[in-house]
Amino acid sequence: MSLIVQKFGGTSVANLERISNVAKRVAKTFDEGHDVVVIVSAMSGVTDNLIKLANQITELPDKRELDVILATGEQVTAPLLAITLQNMNYSATSLLGFQAEILTDGAYGNARIVGISANKIKELLEKRNIVVVAGFQGWDSSGNITTLGRGGSDTSGVAIAAALKADVCEIYTDVDGIYTTDPNVCSKAKKINRISYEEILEMASLGAKVLQIRSVEIAKNFNVPVHVRTSFSEEEGTMVVNEEPEMERVVVTGVTYNKNEARITLKNVPDQPGIAAKILSPISDASIVVDMIIQNTKDSGETDFTFTVPKAEFKRAMDIENRVAKDISAKEVAGDTNISKISITGVGMRSHSGVAVKMFTTLAKENINILMISTSEIRISCVIDEKYTEKAVQLLHTAFGLDKQ
Amino acid sequence: MSLIVQKFGGTSVANLERISNVAKRVAKTFDEGHDVVVIVSAMSGVTDNLIKLANQITELPDKRELDVILATGEQVTAPLLAITLQNMNYSATSLLGFQAEILTDGAYGNARIVGISANKIKELLEKRNIVVVAGFQGWDSSGNITTLGRGGSDTSGVAIAAALKADVCEIYTDVDGIYTTDPNVCSKAKKINRISYEEILEMASLGAKVLQIRSVEIAKNFNVPVHVRTSFSEEEGTMVVNEEPEMERVVVTGVTYNKNEARITLKNVPDQPGIAAKILSPISDASIVVDMIIQNTKDSGETDFTFTVPKAEFKRAMDIENRVAKDISAKEVAGDTNISKISITGVGMRSHSGVAVKMFTTLAKENINILMISTSEIRISCVIDEKYTEKAVQLLHTAFGLDKQ
């Protein structure tokens, strides 16, 4: 007998028919003799509609109050699933975030879990209840309702699995696992059977939207095996686990891309100490997240300074840098929104040389110009012209042997 | 400076425009220098829709789980009002039932408040916050969400007013006060300026739907002045207070009617000790509420036994009594759903004789036959043929001088 945590996203509980399907799957797991804790999201679309409602009053509703409103989404689906299970003659009990004792910090809208005592869950499991927990929500030490940010139900699921020392946290979603690349872009994309926390962290931060990054960090820290799979079939999905020796045989695990960034370059900046801080502090003060940063030294004692920001923040960032450019006597500010970041990820890179060279030559052979490069221990990213995105993904997928995995 | 509790019902918070109107009224009271605690219901229709959703799974959803779902209605309106007030530059904070420490028993769906510590409310009031509390909800001593039953927000309002020793509990509704009778039935109905807790208790139990009975009981027990008024104008409504000497000058305060009951008669029942219990125990076991009970002795050692039940329970009650009739050798079971109960209420009755006679003769003069009679210290009720309801109300309204109040 195992303790299994199952998390179902918004599309899996989008209506009563789907909730009934979820109940059948939960019941099947329970009937196999396992203890089951279920985490549910709000019905798809509900959270967005609640945000829109509050935004009709003001663009910037108080975050504490907004969290109280948003928490209602999961507060409806959790008891609906419990009622459905009871109707199938299973003992089931719903718990809200605060009832499951999910203690968070007070960062409304994006709270971090600081502890889960889970006594109530354990007590119910001992009575052979199926426990259905409302995802995405918790409370802070003053008793205020908090929410965990977009995709927060993944975090709820993994954190509860960690607190209960569950055997596995199953994340049910509308795709059947994690792929070597986006199947919409590359028809040869293959499902990955096993992937390490580190790799999925890199891939998630690069635009793969299967798991919330924070949930993977928690899974890694508490060594929770995560099984990403579809709620629409019995098929096995992708296991996210600690790095295993055989993983290194595969040099590159996946190819990802991100079209949501824009590039800003300050040209002919005086090459002086502290110039990077002068350029980026106002961006940070405006709460704009910078991704890649590159500085090339020129001969003349001047330098070109380039960084990327989310496309949605491009205009604001350009306004800021036009002011900064005057202050620091830079010659020009250039911006480009037609870029794309292509990345390859894999723990095998650590022990294989020549991976970067292979990536660059693969792109060069097809005359795809590389505008920026950034690397981590298990990832290489190249910024290219946006129009080459699909082609680059397909080329790299083939070049690194992922077509025939 | 006073402490004022204001409760707004579902029609007053039915959309953002109305919530904005509520906010203006709350702000005006606050600007006059008062401390303000606001209790809100769910937007009108929301609670019914949530019940329908759960009923699509099963006719009898688990009451604990249903309460978790129903509590979301007020959990949306309370923060929406707080955000609206903040947007008008007032400090406002929403509190859910459990955050306002509204402790109830564990009777899901119809929980009774057992205590309110209200520390959090007091703390916020001291900081000159407008406190917006989600009505209709609390939690039990095990941390389960509970709801207080239909009209439960009235109870929340009055109970919080009692706990805070508020100067007044204002109940805002879509009518401008309590009337001598239903204005839809009698065009001469007049608004009552002051009425006693006792009278409103009788009138509420007789079908007047302005206030939840339990809220009046709490108001009476804790001596909370309740002001029933409309949220659509500044007009004063009806004050519900302790009985005052001048109230006795008015013999009858109001005329009410109730068309929602049905009559069941067991004919020729052996007149033996314990027969009433034999007839009514199975009804009570089936959780059917009996209102009036009448037993007439006949010469023959037999008796006719009549009682009324809600129309919705008529069929079940008839089935039960048809079985009972065989057991106790009653001759026949007769049922009638076309009845109506007309009542007159007033604390002045205590010191005035002849009120009952006047009621009976008023009806007799117009050939309205009285089928059953029941009385309390400050109320007389007659069951008549349903088709005479409107006529009887109008006749009694005139006969007891209410037309020209």
Task: Characterise the protein shown here.
The structure is a homodimer of 405-residue chains. The first copy, chain A, is an alpha/beta fold and 405 residues long. Chain A has a domain at 3-174: Carbamate kinase (3-Layer(aba) Sandwich), CATH 3.40.1160.10. Chain A contains twelve helices and 20 strands. Chain A has helices at residues 16-31, 46-55, 63-70, 72-87, 119-126, 152-163, 197-205, 213-222, 275-285, 314-327, 355-365, 389-399, and strands spanning 3-8, 35-40, 92-95, 102-104, 113-116, 130-134, 137-139, 145-147, 168-173, 194-196, 226-230, 238-241, 254-258, 261-270, 293-297, 302-310, 332-336, 339-345, 370-376, 379-385. An eight-stranded mixed β-sheet of chain A has the order 3-6-2-1-9-11-12-10, sandwiched between helices. A four-stranded antiparallel β-sheet of chain A has the order 13-18-20-19, sandwiched between helices. In chain A, strand 4 and strand 5 (113-116) form a beta hairpin. In chain A, helix 9 runs antiparallel to helix 10 (314-327) and helix 11 (355-365) packs across helix 12 (389-399). The longest helix of chain A is centred in the first third of the chain and has 16 residues, at 16-31. Chain A is globular and about 75 Å long. The two termini of chain A are 33 Å apart. The A-B interface holds A 16, 50, 53-54, 56-58, 61-62, 64-66, 68-69, 71-72, 75-76, 78-80, 82-84, 86-87, 93-94, 96, 98-99, 120, 143-145 and B 16, 50, 53-54, 56-58, 61-62, 64-66, 68-69, 71-72, 75-76, 78-80, 82-84, 86-87, 93-94, 96, 98-99, 120, 143-145.
